[in-house]
Amino acid sequence: MAWVTKSSQETYQNNEPEHTYTKTEKAGNWWHYHKWQVVIVLVVLGILGAIIKDAFFRTRPDYQVGYVGVQELPSDTVDALTTALESFCDDRNGDGQVVVELNQYTIDLATAASTAETADSTQVQDSTDAYVRMAELTRLSTDISSTEGSYIFLLEDPASFQENTAALRYLDGTVPSQDQPASDWENMVYRWTDCPVLAGLDLGTYTGYTMMDDSTGNNQDVLSKLYIGCRGTWTEKAEKSYAEDDVLWQKLTQGSVSTAGQN
């Protein structure tokens, strides 16, 4: 039986013309192979830009106040409150401006300690909510562990706040033992309405409690449901760091008589 083989010297001609890529095709091909490198570079540049902006261009607050509640305060309420508080404050950092910053932590502390477990298709929303709560609790914990964070806190649920953070001091200025965290939050806070200075502030009105509505109301009505307390200072460093914040606390709570825990 004879076999027919092709000569190794045999060549074939390709009559199809060589494709010339357009600029658009070249760009598309480059993007296909390099898009993730570009994304990574942009993310890194964004992070570096945020760090540089925060370090060199951000207006540093002279005082920080924390708010902890299930829902954010209306932006008009925040602006009115911080502006009013600035009249009680000094230019601590010497930049020619008096700035009070309100750090908002939107979290339900009654359920914040629960953690998300492995989610199936019916648990995705619950798990997502749990992770969001944990993220907010982490932000709050970072603030409290700092010696440059919020000193005065506006609280929607002071009992849960104290249970989760053990951060409050007593109204007489003493601090609970860190070995045995205290739960008698009633002795650590005033109602907003207990404080003649705060309740007497002319804060005007708000438009839009959230970004999704156009409701209106009185800013004092929003704040009247809150409690006010301040963090304890268990170290000499923290005590020195917050000495001027304590002066502000004394100004804002002058003449106050606590009715916290009373119906």
Features:
263 residues; alpha/beta; 2 domains; 5-stranded mixed beta sheet; 39% helix
Brief overview, please?
By secondary structure, the chain is an alpha/beta fold. The chain contains eight helices and seven strands; from the N terminus they run H-E-H-E-H-E-H-E-H-E-E-H-E-H-H.
Biggest β-sheet strands, sense, barrel: 5 strands, mixed
Q: How many separate domains make up the residues?
A: 2
Strand content: 5-15%
List segments where confidence is low: pLDDT < 50 over at least 5 consecutive residues. Answer: 115-122
Q: Level of helix content?
A: 25-40%
Strand order of the largest sheet: 2-1-3-7-4
How many β-strand stretches?
Answer: 7
Tell me, rounded to a whole number, the average pLDDT.
Answer: 84
Verbal overview:
The chain has 2 domains: 21-58; 60-252. It has 8 helices and 7 strands. It has helices at residues 23-57, 75-86, 124-145, 158-165, 196-199, 219-223, 236-241, 243-252; strands at 63-69, 100-106, 152-155, 189-191, 205-207, 216-218, 227-230. It has a 5-stranded mixed β-sheet, sandwiched between helices. Helix 2 links the parallel strand 1 (63-69) and strand 2 (100-106). It is elongated, with a radius of gyration of 30 Å. It starts with 22 loop residues before the first helix and ends in an 11-residue tail after the last helix. The model is unreliable at 115-122 (pLDDT under 50).
